Every structure is written in structure tokens, then in C-alpha cells.
Amino acid sequence: MAHAQMTPDDYCQDKAARSGSSFYYSFLFLPPERRRAITALYAYCREVDDTVDEATDPQVARARLDWWRGEIERLFAGDPQHPVTRALAPHLERCAIDRASLVAIIDGMQMDLEQDRYPDFEGLRLYCHRVAGVVGVLAAGIFGARNAGTLAYAEQLGLAFQLTNIVRDVGEDARKGRIYLPLEDLQRYGVPAHEILAARPSDRFVALMRFEAERARACYRQAFALLEPAERRAQRPGLMMAAIYARLLDEIERDGFRVLTHRTSLTPVRKLWLAWKTWVTGCPPRV
């Protein structure tokens, strides 16, 4: 479909559907207005992420991110140019989508241009906050969060999702010269960076990955503890994603953490089943 024939909402829907992401499955169950808002937010994140991932020249990527910073200013001035920001525009006030949060997501993507190693977990946490925690809080607002505890849950859940992504994508990131696993963790488990970059697994590497997976699971548990039962119904889309992501983490572990050479994923049918089951029960998954 040519962009000229697509509405901004169509553009975002197409972007989300083609990504094949787990997030897409949790959107399917939402009422239309909220579904349009979350799909626009997701498409925005994808656009900004692709700006960095697809640019071979860091200078070009920086220029594109600067364009997006300007576009956020245009959005809040009432003059968005891009289909994604035009789709976001009607939802800003009702869903509490603020300028600072949208800019923080760009800041997170910019970190990928500035650094490809993280000395410690605190540095990694800032990255996760910008690319995932902020998104989680915005999403919770779109789903209808009613209290501060729900926003704290959403921030923590975003961290858990990003840590799960990092575990899943170790090999893929290494092929791009990036290691998101904190260097202090590599040292603790005696795994030199060059072994990860060369995709050379070892028992030490498996022990390291088991530690990282457990850290992610602890974040899921902390997130669920912050979500009041009365808020669960509205926040079901996030819980659906959590069910899919937590199961993915289990599969990676069951597969022996072969993440340097394999990419573990769940089938669309399985994702849909996990999403539907969570939608019906409204309960956080067991992690």
C-alpha cells in the first residue's frame, strides 16, 4: 500500500502488523480508540528504532533522530508531519502522552549510537528506562491507569521486557558489535567479551545467562507486586505481553541458552493462545 492511500492509523496498523511483535497480539483485544492510540505509540517507537538500526552511517542516524526531535515539537505545536505523529495527535491529552516521554525514547535510541558496552547494571537500567520503561508508563496510561502504583508497575514491567529482549538477542547484537550485558556481570562469570563477539558458548556463558534470566524474572515479580488487583482488568494488555515474554524466557532456558547462535521465538498461534488466556483470567503469569 502506498503511503498516499493510507490514513495515519492505517500506516501505524501496517507498521505494527509487519513487525510480528508480541506486542501486536495484546492490542487485538482492546476497544478501537485505545487500540488506535497504542498502535500509534508502538509505530512511533518502531520508526525511531529503525532510524538507528537501518542507518549504516551514524551521522545520518543522528540527523534523522534530530528530525524526530523537531517532529515532537511540531506534534505538540499542533502541526505533525509524519503519519505516526499525526496518528498520535488525537490521543495526547486523553491518554496523558507527554513531550518529555516521547523525547526520552529518542534519547534511548541515541544511546545506541554513542555506546555499545555497559560497564554496570545501573548504566544499563538508564537505557532500559528510556527505550522500554517510559514506553511502559505511556502504554499504561493509554490502557487507563488510575494510580501511581500502576505507573511504577509499568516502568518495572518495561525493564523486565527489555532485559528479556537482551537475553534473547545476545547473538544478534554481538554480530553488530554490541554487548548489552553489563561488563561487571561478564567479569563475575569469567566470560571475556571476545568470546561473545565470536559466538563461542561455554559453561561460564550459560551460567551468566542463567543469572541474567533470573534478574529479568525478578523484575517481572516486582512489577506484578506493584499492580493492585483492581487495576488488573484495565492493564490486561501489559499482562498479556508479560505472559508471552515470560514464556519466551522459559523457552530460551529450556533450549540451553543457545542465544549466541540461535534465535528462540514462539509461534503466532502460541502467542495468541497465551494472550487470550491472560485476557480471560486477567491474572499476572507465574514467573
Structure description:
Helix content is 71%, strand content 0%. It contains 15 helices and no strands. The longest helix has 24 residues. It starts with 7 loop residues before the first helix and ends in a 6-residue tail after the last helix. The mean pLDDT is 94.
Basic shape: globular
- What class would the helix/strand composition place it in? mainly alpha
Discrete helix count: 15
Q: Quick one: how many beta strands?
A: 0
> What order do the SSEs take from the amino end to the carboxyl end, as H and E?
HHHHHHHHHHHHHHH
Instruction: Quote the distance from N terminus to C terminus.
Output: 41 Å
Percentage of β-strand residues: under 5%
Show unreliable segments. none
Blueprint of the fold:
Blueprint: H1 8-19, H2 22-27, H3 32-53, H4 58-76, H5 83-88, H6 99-114, H7 121-143, H8 148-168, H9 170-175, H10 183-188, H11 193-197, H12 203-226, H13 229-232, H14 236-254, H15 268-281
Helix pairs in contact: 1-3, 3-6, 3-7, 4-6, 6-7, 7-8, 8-12, 8-14, 12-14, 14-15
Short description:
The chain is 71% helix and 0% strand.
List keywords for this structure.
15 helices, mainly alpha, 287 residues, 71% helix
